[in-house]
Predict the structure.
Amino acid sequence: ISRLADQKGFDIIESVFYDLMKLDIQMVFLGQGEYRYQSLLERIQKSYPNKVGVYIGFNDEFAHLIEAGSDMYLMPSRYEPCGLNQIYSMKYGTVPIVRATGGLDDTVEQFDTNTKTGTGFKFNDYNSTALINAVRSAVNIYKDNQTWHQLMKNCMVQDFSWQTSAKKYLALFQKLSDKK
């Protein structure tokens, strides 16, 4: 669910798409944007009709249904000042797979299989190898129902409300004021 543009990582999705299709996954895309990516998605859907769904355009109701009904949400942005979809996804228990940049890095905590803490999967390098490795990690954890359900719960209990943010800002202000 995205604007179809390089900023949102569609160039690296394009470079690794055939490797993604070798995994036991299905993908759904909803968005509009650069013609290059719109036609790429339409071609891919024709090549993989049982694995890929595409809706060119924007539909808020579909967007929320997709996020709520998905197991994972891929957001490999080149840069992302804030990002909201990873937050929406977590509220639905949909596990984000994100590039560790900007707001994505701030809001998604790498899942730790030993402690069962964290809220998703992150990769640092902006390339196809890093993306496919993060997706593979998520797919492997998904196979363990108990661990996956814990990860989903970790996501759903996150609190990104203004009240929580205001408390953090106030604590930071107090800390900085005390140093003077």
DSSP finds eight helices and six strands in the chain. The CA atoms of residues 14 and 40 lie 8 Å apart. Strands lie at 2-4, 27-33, 52-56, 72-75, 95-99, 121-123.
